[in-house]
Write a structure and sequence with these properties.
Blueprint lengths: L8 H22 L5 E2 L2 H52 L3 H21 L5 H16 L7 H26 L4 H19 L1 E2 L3 H25 L18 H18 L1
Parallel strand pairs: 1-2
Length: 260
């Protein structure tokens, strides 16, 4: 088991908290500060926190699952426009078609930079609007229905960009996070002062409850922004950009053939 693998990064972040909780539990036992006893109310608090964590994770997972399709859809729409530019360049000739293809390649590079927050959303949307000028140059080379098809691809690109921006910038529910965090803190603190015999069982339960709850809270925070490529130090669960990266490679190769 390699603890350097990405899947263990989150557990490594929880480890300092667990060590602190274990040390606090040991001190509480040593100095006789374990004045709480297990009862039904305490178990109800744990159940309530499990429900809140489940509520939060179901909310962020819906956006995560929706976001999984967006990079692939973006790549498909961009490549569809690029294909039409290649078609026009080979069958109709002209400088406009070649420049349209180069615009698709440049736009793909801009989108990839945008995912890493090297480019603002406003600039990306301006480049989406720039496709209108590209299509205008095709007016004398193609039919109106052809331009309408390209405009549809442009519209789909704009919708995908705005959807990704919303997922990345808007958090699921800060109030729900706050309640779950408060209850988690209260439960872990209570576990430190909870008396369970023998002590080894008490220590195990405290560490286990603290690890699971803190881990899940950090996981929910991470899943809430599946496009956090700009935060490699803290982000773990990210949606793959392979479809856009592969598209950039394909367009670069097709550009060489277009130049021949």
């Amino acid at each position: 088991m390699n603890f350097l693998e990405p899947k263990w990064k989150l557990a490594a972040r929880v480890l300092p908290v667990i060590l602190f909780v274990a040390a606090a539990k040991l001190l509480a036992h040593h100095y006789g500060w374990e004045f709480l006893s297990m009862n039904g109310i305490f178990a109800a608090f744990i159940s309530a926190n499990i429900f809140l964590i489940g509520f939060n994770i179901s909310g962020v997972l819906s956006d995560f699952k929706a976001g999984e399709k967006l990079p692939g859809e973006l790549a498909a729409h961009i490549e569809a426009i690029a294909d039409e530019c290649v078609y026009l360049a080979k069958n109709k000739g002209g400088k406009a078609a070649r420049e349209g293809f180069l615009y698709c390649l440049d736009f793909t590079n801009t989108v990839l930079e945008w995912f890493y927050k090297k480019v603002r959303t406003k600039m990306v949307l301006e480049k989406v609007a720039g496709f209108t000028d590209v299509f205008h140059e095709f007016q004398t080379m193609s039919k109106t229905s052809y331009i309408s098809r390209l405009k549809h691809e442009q519209s789909e690109i704009r919708k995908a960009i705005m959807r990704i921006h919303t997922i990345r910038e808007v958090r699921f529910s800060e109030a729900a996070y706050a309640v779950a965090e408060i209850i988690t803190f209260a439960i872990v603190a209570a576990m430190i002062f909870l008396q369970i015999d023998p002590f080894i069982e008490s220590m195990f339960c405290t560490i286990f409850v603290a690890f699971v709850f803190v881990y899940m809270l950090l996981l929910i925070r991470d899943l809430d922004d599946p496009f956090a490529y700009y935060d490699q130090e803290h982000s773990i669960e990210e949606i793959s950009l392979h479809s856009l990266e592969d598209l950039r490679t394909r367009l670069a190769m097709r550009r060489k053939h277009l130049d021949e």
